[in-house]
Amino acid sequence: MHTTHLDSRSWATTLLQFLIRPFRPLLVKPGKPLPSGSPRITPLSKIRSRCHIEEKQINGIWTYTLSAKKSPPQDQNTKQDENSPKTDRIYYFAGGAFQMPPSPQHWTFCAEICNRCTNTNVTVVSYPLAPNNPAPDSFPKLVELFHSLMHMAKESGETATFMGDSAGGNLALSVPLYALSQVQQRYRLRGGDEEREGGIPLTSIFLISPTLSLLNTNPQIPVTAKHDPVLTIPYINSVAETWAGGWALGDPRLSPLVADISVLKNYGVRVYGVTGSYDILAPDAEVFRERCEKEGVEGQWLSWERQMHCFPLAWGYGFKESRRGLEWVVEMLRREAEGGNEVS
What we know:
Oligomer: single chain
Distance between the termini: 5 Å
Radius of gyration: 19 Å
Largest sheet: 9 strands, mixed
Strand content: 15-25%
Number of helices: 10
């Protein structure tokens, strides 16, 4: 596990953080609750000039696959020719307090990734949202979806990455952790070996400013809150209660920080992450990174001092650190596509 530490902050980013801080409640306020079930959404129109977009419903969950227009669109159900380059598929879970669909920033971020990473498709997952679909309703559906996606990836010869930011980062980690634990236990009971049956196509998990614990008890959170220009402690506590839906906040399905992560090493799943120190979710992410290192989970992390929540997603506004953050993400995804070369 390697961590890149950066500490620069441009005057433009400093000014932005100062200007948006008074508007924190408005910046992250959820909109009108969406109906029960997976919302059928409309991708940002301007990305259609750069990406093919395939809408598909899988196990009742709407998905939107972006592929670069420089490449022909690919159906995940179609098995790849053995002589053609292997396609990497990223399943992206957008943040938004478990209550909001992908924002324009999410769409442009995903479109940029699929255009910069060769032979890579990005599938945006429109998961059921709180408050009408809290975790007790949504999580089992996402676990079922995970198993279906892994089966489809195996059949088509693709490798898979689960990726997400903020609340979406929580799901990009907690769902595979729970699902892989199920698989591991099932094979142990049967005395079988999943590797002999084709293995698990999931090769990596990528987290950007993730929500890793709904307990919010890390003593560094109040310290970091003094500098966070986006999130507040009352806000993240409210988000936690809304998503939990009656489950205990310390349940590993809600708080993957306390889950058994040895399954990641057992299946060779690498973990990448991005954090900014002016983000009240960063202290828990740092603890998780340390746990990964202790457990022998491979991967790489970018830790940037004085950067705010989800700063790489602001790359389209021209901020220097956001653009560099995006470049780091793309570079890691490219390395992952090469089989995790130089990742340790």
